[in-house]
Fold each of these.
Amino acid sequence: MGSAFPRLLSPLRVGSVTLRNRLVMGSMHTGLEDRDWHIDRLAAFFAERARGGVGLIVTGGYSPNREGWLSPFACAMITEADARRHRTITDAVHEAGAKIALQILHAGRDSEVPISVSPSAVPSPFSPFVPRELTEEGIQNTIADHARCAELAKLAGYDGIEVMGGEGFLINQFLAPRTNTRTDQWGGSTANRQRFAIEIVRQIRAAVGDNFLIMFRMSVAEFVEEGQTFDEIITLAKELQSAGVDVINTDIGWHESRVPTIATSVPRAAFVGYTARLKEHVTIPVCAANRINMPEVAEEILERGDADLIALARPLLADPEWVNKAAESRVDEINTCIACNQACLDHTFTGQTVSCLVNPRACHETLLQLLPTRSAKRVAVVGAGPAGLAAATGLAERGHHVELFEAEDRIGGQFDLARRIPGKEEFDESIRYFRSKLEITGVTVHLNTRVTAEQLAAGDWDEIVLATGVRPRTLDIPGIDHPMVLSYPQAVRKERPVGKRVAVIGAGGIGFDISELLTVEASPALNLEEWQAEWGVTDDDHALGQLTTRKPTPAVREVTLLQRKTGPFGTTLGKSTGWIHRAALNAKGVTQIGGVNYERIDDRGLHISFGENREGRRVIEVDNVIICAGQESVRDLEDQLETLGGRVHLIGGADEAKELDAKRAIDQGTRLAATL
Ligand code: FAD
Ligand code: NAP
Ligand code: SF4
């Protein structure tokens, strides 16, 4: 039987290298690159993806010199000793049948070191240091360092290199008027600004010869003011091709862009249009990237001829076997990246090793393993939310006999609510994945079954896992029983109609989600044109940075979001996504009121006051009040099962409701499964 994804799985010759398929693992900085003693972990991480079938892997970005470090003592490829160490990686990947390229990344002004450099002394929002303007000699040396770095990569056994020319790093800083104010041969005209990138490629090609792959990661949409125009981007692509580039890998936006580029609310394959337009102007292969997370999306891109290759980065954190599963028509088994950024990008921004919310083994392959058990046990798992699902499937995968009890008529727990939030449609994929994994691993699932302590105690279980999760906190406000009051599950499930004027109590992640849900008719993530208008994105070839005026669809309700604390809203949201939620609510005109006391609820609406003296009393006249005031653990069963002692395990929200999220729930479930 033929494959469902013939184009995706067809080989391609790129430069001197033949790739076994069209899937490229895009560069991700995992944090493991920065310390030599993690090289074995890094090799295991790449090898697992190579065994999973990907054609070409691109490493995280290695600096060609110390000035280009992303952070102090970050990874670099500068000496022959560096190159020799990398043999562990290249050998492991080659043994598994894939190719691997080293990414060369000079951070320029984004470097967090005091010796940072840039074409001009324009400060970066990400570094406390103002970069030094490169001299003519400095520029020549930096170009030579790139060429030397590529030579060392060849010595290390890599099949090629990728030059990072996007995301606002050094090369991009030369390309854009925003960061290049020079008046010599390296600044001013388009040709002068492009000289640095082209010269780097020329010298790399001269240093490595013909039999070595050169990829160039270039910005095809800048999404910053005073970025390059699309006309300039096309000119650059043609020049790079002439200078010796074998593949153009596309890149979207700068780190400081105020257009979301990889969040879950970005429509799938949202930026492929830019890639397709660029491809019309070059003859070398072009690779599409960003928000491509399922094989059918990737296959469609190739079928339309919009690109020759598909870069998957986070989807391969989520599922190292993605390619093999696609090849074997096991798409239902793919653990899909939900683009939450919670364990990948947010970890990078907070100095933690990258992992994945839906796959806590990512970057921990040698540390967290679900090995076959030698003594199969009978295990009851109570609760089919993310924690219980991870535990049940992990335990069954190891060979235990697992029965899963869920009170509701479906699996998912609170995730079944999350998936109904506009822009969080991807969360549905996680539930689909777990459903398929329960079946494959042979877990016996009892839906509509609220188990009691007596049933569990009588069940003769070797182990009992309580993953009973959380329930919404009930508030003690006069009038809380008024018919206008809804809990957040009631609002999400649309159990009762919600009027045109709404107050939302509590501005945590769920308060923000509910406010977004109430202001839109349909999810902008499912409508590319609406999403582009919402964020002011244009495909006008002459627009600087591909930006235009934002035209958000008007809100369908008047929403007031409230919190008791003073200070800014949304401080507990994800590091890399919080600004998106804040911008989305601002665009919808959601009123935000902090420092409030909730006095009472009556037919007029929600009565509030301010400060310890309860001053400034007023009524917010609304049709409904939605309570999003956090949650409490559901652990009634634990007390009653005390006599069973060490056989009872608490995970997820049942263990601790404070600062609970699905990342912790899945991580705890998986870790417990690995140890029982
Ligand atoms: P739960 O999801 O609460 O699951 C517990 C399960 O146990 C439930 O299905 C319940 O019915 C069952 N149960 C309870 N008692 C019994 C019993 N006696 N017998 C049988 N079954 C029982 N998290 C993120 O990380 N990122 C997000 O973007 C995000 N967005 C969210 C958006 C919304 C609108 C909501 C509501 C939540 C969101 N979350 C998000 C939070 C995330 O869903 C929770 O942290 C996670 O679901 C907690 O998992 P859990 O398994 O511990 O508990
Ligand atoms: P939360 O983030 O803890 O927020 C609860 C909100 O309710 C706070 O704003 C709090 O602010 C308010 N509150 C707490 N106790 C209250 C009380 N007694 N009376 C009135 N208000 C009270 O919880 P959540 O929004 O329910 O989210 C639950 C978890 O899901 C979070 O930990 C989060 O990580 C996860 N989640 C994540 C995302 C995401 O995008 N990553 C999205 C949704 C949910 P004040 O005390 O100032 O009023
Ligand atoms: Fe994807 Fe979220 Fe995993 Fe990152 S943490 S790889 S965004 S699922």
Note: The mean pLDDT is 96.
Amino acid sequence: MALGIVAGTANPALAEAVAARLGTCLVATELERFPDGEIRPCLGPVRGADVYVVQPTGPPVNENLVELLLLLDACRRAGAGRVTAVVPYFGYARQDRRAGARQPIGARVAAEAIESAGAGRLVVVDPHTSSLEAMFTVPVEMLTAVPALAAAVRPAIEDGPVVVAPDLGAMRLARHFASLVTAPFAVVSKHRLDAVSVSAQDVVGDVHGRPVVVVDDMISTGATIEAAVGALRAHGAASGPVVAAIHGLFTGSALARLDRCALGRLVVTDSIAPTAGSPRAAPRPESQPSQSPPQPQQSPRQASKAHTPGLPSQTESIAGLLAEAVDRLHRSEPLEELLSRS
Ligand code: R5P
């Protein structure tokens, strides 16, 4: 079965890097936009192919989700042999339960839509909740970018660090990170006040006088990181905390908020495409050789230095991770060490 990589418009650079690593070109795709806001993708030939549709559903979440659904449907109707949705960042994953009466379960709705549009499998990177898997009846491969993130952050970590989860939900990820950099672990007790503000005062674990690395699955408004950094400072942590997150959404004034936190370094992956004004939109001068299988042109690791004053940042590419996963799935080989820990 031929391999086909289809790029949605949410992060075409990432899809292109994945295709390049696999020694193939993207399936030609055009997206028509109608005056009323409707979109209509049109694909090149995929009949009989093993197709991977790369489309993170970050902001604008609903727009990107609908485009993903249309691309999956187009693949199915065009006679693709097998269709996999590669959704590095899965929007709506935070809505994995009803937080109050008369609310939907957004993650479940998104899962059902993706499945019924034609996905025979989902590939996702460090979703907010591992319960996402149970919302699908088709196989879900939950990859982890924590090793790549830890490798990128390691040079910025000072001696005697403590890895900190900024809330209880980030504990699993932070523990994994701590084990990779051989550091002790602490957690901040966070209380969400509303969609854009949180409060955090308590820290469980000793951070006094220690350099800290705050690890989270995602940064949206930056409120969680801001609150955690404040709590860590109040508990005597060393200045210049390093912050590492898998998914950098940076909504609203998140970057300005983070800028005020006087971070030592901010590291995210490219699961979500940089937006205008984001430090990740800066040129990416550095590149290093790949550890991944087929690697025709592109580097596996791309780092961008921050151009936002006071906010030194870096982007770690997950193109190598995704390419490796696609390559193994295409060959029906196990993914094993690429998967996130439960
Ligand atoms: C929450 O449980 C997540 O792990 C993140 O901490 C949170 O969603 C980040 O959002 P924000 O940046 O808006 O605080």
Note: The CA atoms of residues 153 and 267 lie 7 Å apart.
Amino acid sequence: MPRLCDICNDARAIVRRPKTAQSICKECFFHVFETEVHNTIVDSNLFKPGDRVGIGASGGKDSTVLAYVMKTLNDRYNYGLDLYLLSVDEGISGYRDDSLETVKRNKEQYGLPLLIVSYEQLYGWSMDSIVAAVGRKNNCTFCGVFRRQALDRGALMLDLDHIVTGHNADDVAETILMNIFRGDISRLGRCTEIATTGEGYIVRSKPFKYAYEKEIVMYAYLRRLDYFSTECTYSPNAYRGYAREFLKKLERVRPSAILDIIHSGEAMHVAKDVQLPSLDRCQRCGYISSNSICKACVLLEGLERGIPKLGISRTKQDVEAGPRESDLVHFEKLRQDALEMRKTRQNSAACPQSACAC
Ligand code: SF4
């Protein structure tokens, strides 16, 4: 006789939850998965009605499930959010071009507006051209630094209040381990937070912070979502790969290890007398930075001067790199444009005559 669902005790159990070891049916799995994400959102007060929220969408399983679940919960619980898909095209042929086709289909399937910003357009360099210049080393360093800024630039272009990303519990636990192994105190504090403030007022959060990767894969599979599952052409960051392997081994002997690490990370506090870097604005592009020139500008400087190691390992040149005639759109300009958009929107929302020209 088939095993019945541990929750409804009616339908046939087809999923064993790695998080709780319960055997449950498909409908109960959808319900508990979605409800747990909703509880994370509500308990952490992530949004307020009227927020314009961009979903960082790569076409991969995490962000595709995130887009689907955000739309479902927004409709079901009347969050009152304006949702957008925001994608970054790093310019990796055979990988990102294909995954962006998936995002374009998701745009139609979920009925959400989509903005794609590209490295080529923002920095004048695609990842393919960066790899051609620097070789197959440190690729993820360039890519990660540029992507963070690209998302913030896209958010300003859409005048968003909030960006949500598909980082799941496994990603967060890996990051905590990596920061402990590196002794990176300032990042250790930030990486456990569910929401951080990025560019000015734009909040960035991880609604899947407590969702296991295995359950996200199951959800995508059982809902038959349209997602892209090929690995990036350029090798994933080796250091994260070791942390991931270590975590998987721990999970095999203790399935709660992922959540245990997250809770341990949350419980750690940096002593008050530890000096943390203070944030300022990059003198070149205006992005938030703990140095006078932000990491992206240092990396770009290195690429343009043919010394790509600039910014990878800090050298005296980092500090001495002179001002560059930048073709980057200055963040101050993007911020002003976003504020203008916001003012126009607020005025038109306040006006009872929606067709008037005020
Ligand atoms: Fe970029 Fe590295 Fe991710 Fe590829 S694996 S998309 S190079 S960060």
Note: The first helix runs from residue 26 to 43.
Amino acid sequence: MHRTAIYPGTFDPITNGHLDIIKRAVKIFDTVIVAVANNVGKAPLFTIEQRVEMIKESVKGISQVEVDAFNGLIIEYCQQKGATALIRGLRAISDFEYEFQMALINRKIGKDVESVFLMPKEKYTYLSSSIIKEIAAFGGDVSCFVPDVVKRHLNDKYAETKEHA
Ligand code: ADP
């Protein structure tokens, strides 16, 4: 049986922590679909197209990965794609409460989809998209935290903001 998992998130932008989780997930599942949430509520820095593009570029070498955008309920998206699992990354205790709540709600809505939690390498546990944006906004070097394509996009983005300041 072909096993498909969905890894949903805002990915604004993708970091080496997200990539670590993707690499672990493909060891367990045949196909992993990285599903980028439109998530207007979070007022993302990058457009959905840019976020999808950066992920596609970052996972080029991993054949089992697909990248897509989605709107609405993640469980409905899973059912649409025939996925049996939802991947989430757990960094620290601070992620636990929110993830626990989401997993239980998703279980209530979609009984056939299991949430699977993976832990990244220790060195990525303190990484988040928001901290990356903060460092980049102040001109800091993010090379060891994000793929090259993301670094380039961040540089462009903040150069743009400076020009308009
Ligand atoms: P969301 O808005 O859904 O939280 P994110 O893009 O912030 O979207 O995160 C998507 C998933 O990846 C979440 O499960 C989050 O806990 C996980 N994640 C984010 N950063 C890391 C990291 N550095 N290491 C492991 N998992 C991470």
Note: Residues 9-11, 15, 17-18, 21, 88-89, 91, 95, 120, 124, 127-129 surround adenosine-5'-diphosphate (CB under 6 Å).
